[in-house]
Structures are given as C-alpha cells and as structure tokens.
C-alpha cells in the first residue's frame, strides 16, 4: 500500500488498468488459440513470435529501420503537402471545391497499382514507398485541417479586427492555433497510415523492408515470420499513434471535440451544377496528369497519357476485350468489397450502439478499439489469408475488419456527443435507454458515422486490392499484379483510372445519402 | 482629418442597418443621429434583440452601416482601429484558450503593434483582481474572472474609446455588482470615452453619465436620461432615492418604448 501511494506511476495504474487487462486477455487468448491442436499451420502464438523475433533480431531490425524511415519520410512529406493544400484552399475559397475534389481523386488512387507505376517512373530506390506513404496520409490531414482553419468562433476574429488587424493577423494568432487540435487528430491517424503505405509500396516490388520480408514469408508459408512481421507492424503503429496522441494532449490544454470530415452543404447544388463541377475537376486532373508526364518527358511505354488510356479502353480495335477484362475484374472485386464494406459499417455501428446500452462494457471496449484502430490492418492481410484461406470469405473479412475499427470508434465518439441536457429531458420523463438511443443518441451519431464511412471507402478498396494482389489471384488487384509483372502499362494505368473513378463515385453517392439523412435527423450539422 | 486633442467624441449621422435575409429585409437599426461627448460613459439600454449590439459594432467599424456615417473625433472607425485607438469588450470574453491570462492581455498589445511590458500587465491584472492568475489559462477560470481578464485586455492598450457589449452578461449577480462598482474607476481615471451596452437598468444607472433608452427593433431613441450622481459612485448608492428615481425613469422609458412598438414590436422579436 505504501509503495502504491509513494509512486505516482503506480497510482495511475487504475486508469491504465482497463486497456492493460484487455491487452493481457487478448494475448492469452491468442496464445491459447495457437496451442489448439492443428493450429500451428495457421497461427503462431505470442511465445513463438517472441522466439522468432529473438532469433531474427538483426534481420527484423534492419527491415524495420528501412520501412520506418520510408514511413517517416512519407509521413512528413504527406502532412506538409496536406498543410500546404489546406492553406491554399483556405486562401483561395473559390478554388476550394476544385482543390478538395482533386485531393479526393488522388486519395482514391489504388495504391497497389500506383506502386509499380511509380517504380518505373522513379527507377530503383525508396521513392515509390515514400510516395505511397505520403499518399496514404495527406487526405486524412487535409480534410480536418481545412475544417480547423474555420473552427474558431466569430468573436475571436472581431477581437482581432477591433485592433485594426486583418486576415493575416487572424490567421497567425487565431486560425493556426485553433486548427492545431484538428492537425493533431489528422497526424494521429496518419501515423499508422504512413506505415501501411510504406509496406504496400514494398509489397509491389521493393528490394528491402518489412513488406519484402512479408511477401517472402507468405510465399514460404512461414507462419512464425508472417505473424511476427504483422505483430511488429501493429506494435510500432500503436506506439506512434499513442505517442502523437500523448504529445497532442500535452500541447493542447483543452482539445475540442473534432469531427474529422463534416458533411457538406445541406441543399446540394443542382445536378447540372454538380456535373459541371465534376467535369471541371476531371479536366484539371487530366491536364495535370498530361502536364506532369510531358514536363518530365517520361517514356510513353510506361508513362501513359490520358489519350493512351482512352485509346486502350475506347478507340483501339481491341478496346472491347480490354474493357471486358478490366470491368470483369472490377466486378469480381466489387462483389467482395461491397459486402465487406457494408458488413464493416454495420458491425462497427451496431457494436457501438450495443455498447451504449451497456456503458460499463463501453469504457472497456473504447481503449481497445482505439488501440486496434492504429493497427495498419492491411499489413495483417497475410494473416487473414492464412486464417481464412484464399476464398471470398477471407477477402470479405479483411475488408470488414479494415472498415470496422474507424467506424466503431467514430460512432462511439458520435454517441457520446448527444448533449447531456437533452438526455436529462429524457430522464425527466423516465424514458428507457431504447427511447434515448432512438431519439437523442442515434441522431448525434449519424454525422460521425457518415464521415467515417466516406473516409474509409478508399481503405476498403485498398484492402481488397491488396489481398487480391498478394493472395487470391482474382479481381482487379490480381489484374494489376499481372499487368505489372507483364509490363502491360496501358492496362495498369487504365485500372488505376477506373478504380479511382469508381471510388470517387462511391464517395459522391455516400455524400448524397448523407445529405438526405442528416437533413432529416441532424439538421444542425449542416451549414 | 487629424484627431482633436482630448478624449474623442462620437458622431453618428443617419446611421442605419438592414440585414437582407432569405425571409426578406430585417431593419435592425432605423436611421439614427447620435452624439457622444468625449470622456463620458454612456449606457445603451434596450430590450433583447433591439439592435444595440449592432449599433456598437457599427461604431467600432466591425459592421458597415447600410446608411449614414460614424466619426470618432473626426476620424473613421477604421482609422481609429488601425492605430488601436479603440477596444471592444465582447459579450463572450473571447479569450484564446491556448494563451494564458497574461498571454491574452499581451496579445492586444501585439495586435496593436506595441511592446508588451510584463510588469505593466501584472499591475493591470492586480487592478482587475486577477493577481497571481497571470499564468493560468482561461479554461481554469470562473466566468467572472474571464470577464475581468477580457476587460484587462481592453484596457491594456489604453484606448481613447472603450466599447463594451454586455461585458458582465455571463457573470453571476454578486460578481456583476462588484465589477460594476470596481471597473468604471479604471477607465474613469483615464478619461476614456465609454459606450456600454446592457439590459440591466441598475447597471446602466450605476456605471454611466448618461443612459440612452432604445426601442424594440428597429432601434430608435426613446429617452435620453442624464445621470447626475456623483463620481466615483459611492458604496450603497443603489439604495439612495436619487438612484431609485433614475432607475424608475429608465424603466418607464423602456416600458414606453415597448408599448409604442405595440404588437408589431413584439412580432418583430
């Protein structure tokens, strides 16, 4: 007793108790499963993983250093790009929609196909991995930061104006500081995403790093190595995620509740206007693409221009066959991605709602979910392939797991946003928990649910294409892998374009549904 | 036009404000001619939503009038603001949560492009009763303390014109009375021209040299009541017959304004 009182670290133990206990239970469960008869061909327990890591400490250390350095470089570059883009969009309000649309389009590029293209564009070296890591992080920082730059109350700007100072002073003294919590929230999510991007870059043909080791282990059916690599990737991501969160809490004394991707305007523009905007964004994207290829005078064999993709898919005599192959593969992919995505959404929202009815369980589940959200799920793709086989079940499960955690965490945060006074009104009529849930908590959850659903759409596409690339040999991911190994760059570029457009279309569809639902149930969320 | 010596007076000519909204035009302030003498404290009293805050914001130049002009000692509000000649105390204390109390007060000097003197800031904080709270962040302060910190921020630039929009709005009754007694001494000593928006009749009489009673929207002047009580106001002045008489007069003018506006005035609320 006297020790516990004299050591502040021990006194804080109760706060750490829940996640610690949950972690211990997970580890024991994992070890127990691994010791089941017949499990050794699929599952390596924590003990085996630890042994493997001790034996291969040098190899693992070198690989981790390589991947970590790439992830760190991508993290810095991607977030710098996000800050620059957000400031640009803020400074040019007329161009904001265009910048946001282009940023989304680039975010929707399928990383597994972008990797090999970047590899031929850059030549050997860590360039593609770093770029992929940057691509994986910039959007989730850009969106909240842009929100954060506008998040300050109007009187703060009046205060600045009352001393005769203008927009620049308001930006320096108010907006940048007010945006910091949003930046921290973005950076926190970015840490695991950067690691994921670097590993996906290594999957697609690097020389060194954890991604390369993962591919090797998977091909050799080396169960211990596969589990050890996934464990290290997960632990590193969790550690960085926690460290940034901790630094953020130290830096910000009272962080406000941050909604990462608030909904767009209530009354959307007319369909004609929308088409016009989409057309403009598309035209600018094509011009940028063409301009970049021409500016660096890149070889037409692997650096395809918009015209080449158009010819490949539309005007060439074999275009019909190309289209059939590409869209057939895309159909196969969507047949797995859509159920997995919907299952992840439904499970995440349902579990969050269920836990609200059992608040004690929620306080235990929250830290575990927040921790597991930091795991770059795609890096565990090999495990899921090991566990569930190369059939559709494994792919659907991976996509669902990938979507589950961000949606679950967002929904728990959303449910907690139901205003206390409104809940008190329900209590004053002795309304039951179901009534409270239906009329107060669910409406408060909806914006967070939709925001996470939109943001995780590209993640779902990434998950499905990675599994197809690595393991199942079906769908558009496998088509990309095949095209990359055959140097069929026209098909690879076409696949990138088509997958990105499909993802953007899904995003737009969700946005429309979101507008309708929120207008009905959570009108105050729309500006 | 160069500024005249001494605390500046304010001259509003035909000043009006209309807001164009989806539901049509909203007339917040009807065309008004107003004069405020330099170095005096004037209270603007009126029912909620009558446009008194809008009037104050137009004088500060934070809101452009739809018609008319504002001159502060011959200058436009923008000119006065540019040399940090005025300070606004907002209904919400509007302290930046990431800055300490001291940092928030120093920010005003920084925005005014002046050097911050930590000792002077500390003295000012002592004056508003925040001694020892310089390194505290606003989140850890009570509502009344935040208001006092905001007032310290207003005073630190030694403005010629102080515009206060219900600065004690978010404060409990007891603190409110204390502030109403203590704070005017700070600006009276400097001869600052002060405009003070409130809907508390007692506060208006207690603080000001003159009370302007405004009608329900669109704001017109219902009564212009000089307050002849001795300055600085003595402890317990609220209990004197002279004070009660003035408070009566202000209340009666408020009621008259509401009655004249009639059901139309109520409908406009």
Could you characterize what this model shows?
The complex is a heterodimer of chains A (527) and B (269). With 527 residues, chain A is an all-alpha fold. Chain A folds into two domains: 41-258, Orthogonal Bundle (MetI-like fold), CATH 1.10.3720; 299-527, MetI-like (MetI-like fold, Orthogonal Bundle). The longest helix of chain A is centred in the middle third of the chain and has 39 residues, at 319-357. Chain A is built from 23 helices and no strands. Chain B is of the alpha/beta class and 269 residues long. Chain B folds into two domains: 10-85 and 162-268, Rossmann fold; 96-158. In chain B, strands 5-6-7-3-8-9 form a six-stranded mixed sheet, sandwiched between helices. A three-stranded antiparallel sheet of chain B has the order 2-1-4. The chains are: A mainly alpha (527), B alpha/beta (269). The interface between A and B is medium-sized, with 19 and 28 residues. Chain B: GO terms for molecular function: ATP binding; ATP hydrolysis activity.
Number of helices of chain B: 8
DSSP summary, beta strand count of chain A = 0
CATH superfamily of the largest domain in chain B: P-loop containing nucleotide triphosphate hydrolases
Number of helices of chain A: 23
Could you tell me the number of beta strands of chain B? 9
Q: Give the CA-based shape of chain A.
A: globular
Radius of gyration of chain A (Å): 24 Å
């Amino acid at each position: 007793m006297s020790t516990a009182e004299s050591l502040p670290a021990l006194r804080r133990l109760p706060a750490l108790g829940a996640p610690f206990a949950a972690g211990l239970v997970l580890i024991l469960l994992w070890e127990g499963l691994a010791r089941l008869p017949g499990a050794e061909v699929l599952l390596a327990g924590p003990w085996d993983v630890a042994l493997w890591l001790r034996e291969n400490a040098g190899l693992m250390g070198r690989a981790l250093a390589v991947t970590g350095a790439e992830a760190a470089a991508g993290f810095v570059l991607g977030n710098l790009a996000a800050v620059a883009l957000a400031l640009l969009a803020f400074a040019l309000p007329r161009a904001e929609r265009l910048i946001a649309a282009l940023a989304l389009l680039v975010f929707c590029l399928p990383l597994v196909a972008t990797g090999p293209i970047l590899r031929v564009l850059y030549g050997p070296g860590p360039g593609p991995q770093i770029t992929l890591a940057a691509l994986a992080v910039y959007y989730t920082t850009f969106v909240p930061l842009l929100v954060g730059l506008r998040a300050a109350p109007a009187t703060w700007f009046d205060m600045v104006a009352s001393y005769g100072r203008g927009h620049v002073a308001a930006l320096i003294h108010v907006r940048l500081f007010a945006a910091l919590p949003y930046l921290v929230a973005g950076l926190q999510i970015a840490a695991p995403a950067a690691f994921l991007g670097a590993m996906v870059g290594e999957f697609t043909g690097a020389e060194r790093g954890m991604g390369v080791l993962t591919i090797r282990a998977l091909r050799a059916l080396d169960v211990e190595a596969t589990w050890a690599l996934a464990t290290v990737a997960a632990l590193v991501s969790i550690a960085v995620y926690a460290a940034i969160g901790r630094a953020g809490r130290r830096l910000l004394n009272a962080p406000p509740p941050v909604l990462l991707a608030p909904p767009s305007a209530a009354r959307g523009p007319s369909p004609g206007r929308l088409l016009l905007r989409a057309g403009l964004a598309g035209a600018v994207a094509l011009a940028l693409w063409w301009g970049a290829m021409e500016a660096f005078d890149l070889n037409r064999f692997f650096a395809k221009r918009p015209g080449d993709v158009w010819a490949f898919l539309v005007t060439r005599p074999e275009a019909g066959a190309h289209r059939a192959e590409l869209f057939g593969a895309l159909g196969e992919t969507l047949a797995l991605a859509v159920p997995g995505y919907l299952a992840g959404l439904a499970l995440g929202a349902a579990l969050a709602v269920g836990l609200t009815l059992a608040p004690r369980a929620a306080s235990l589940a929250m830290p575990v979910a927040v921790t597991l959200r930091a795991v770059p799920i795609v890096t565990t793709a090999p495990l899921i392939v090991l566990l569930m086989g190369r059939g559709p079940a494994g792919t659907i499960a991976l996509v669902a797991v990938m979507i589950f955690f961000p949606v679950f965490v967002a929904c728990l945060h959303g449910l907690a946003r139901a205003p206390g006074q409104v809940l008190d009104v329900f209590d004053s009529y002795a309304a039951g928990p179901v009534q409270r849930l239906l009329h107060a908590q669910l409406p408060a959850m909806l914006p967070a649910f939709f925001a996470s659903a939109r943001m995780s759409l590209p993640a779902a596409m990434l998950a499905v294409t990675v599994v197809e690339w690595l393991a199942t040999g079906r769908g558009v991911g496998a088509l990309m892998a095949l095209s990359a190994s055959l140097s069929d760059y026209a098909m690879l570029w076409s696949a990138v374009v088509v997958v990105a457009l499909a993802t953007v279309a899904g995003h737009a569809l969700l946005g429309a549904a979101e507008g309708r639902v929120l207008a009905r149930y959570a009108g105050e969320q729309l500006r | 036009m160069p500024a005249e010596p001494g605390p500046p007076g304010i001259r509003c000519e035909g000043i009006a404000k209309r807001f164009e909204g989806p539901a049509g035009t909203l007339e917040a302030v009807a065309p008004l001619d107003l004069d405020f003498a330099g170095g005096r404290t004037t209270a603007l009293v009126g029912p909620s939503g009558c446009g008194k805050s809008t009037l104050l914001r137009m004088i500060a130049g934070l809101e452009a009038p739809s018609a008319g002009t504002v001159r502060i000692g011959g200058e436009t509000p923008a000119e006065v603001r540019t040399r940090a000649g005025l300070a606004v105390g907002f209904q919400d204390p509007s302290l930046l949560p990431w800055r300490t109390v001291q940092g928030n007060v120093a920010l005003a000097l920084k925005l005014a492009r002046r050097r911050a003197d930590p000792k002077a800031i500390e003295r000012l904080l002592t004056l508003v009763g925040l001694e020892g709270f310089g390194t505290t962040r606003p989140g850890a302060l009570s509502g009344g303390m935040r208001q006092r910190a905001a007032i310290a921020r207003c005073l630190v630039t030694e403005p010629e014109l102080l515009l206060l929009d219900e600065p004690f709005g978010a404060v409990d009754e007891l603190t409110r009375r204390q502030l109403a007694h203590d704070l005017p001494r700070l600006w009276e000593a400097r001869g600052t021209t002060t405009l003070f928006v409130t809907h508390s009749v007692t506060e208006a009489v207690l603080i000001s040299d003159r009370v302007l009673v405004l009608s329900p929207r669109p704001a017109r002047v219902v009564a212009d009541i000089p307050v002849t009580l001795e300055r600085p106001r003595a402890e317990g002045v609220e209990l004197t017959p002279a004070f009660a008489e003035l408070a009566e007069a202000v209340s009666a003018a408020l009621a008259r304004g509401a009655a004249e506006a009639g059901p139309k005035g109520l409908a406009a609320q």
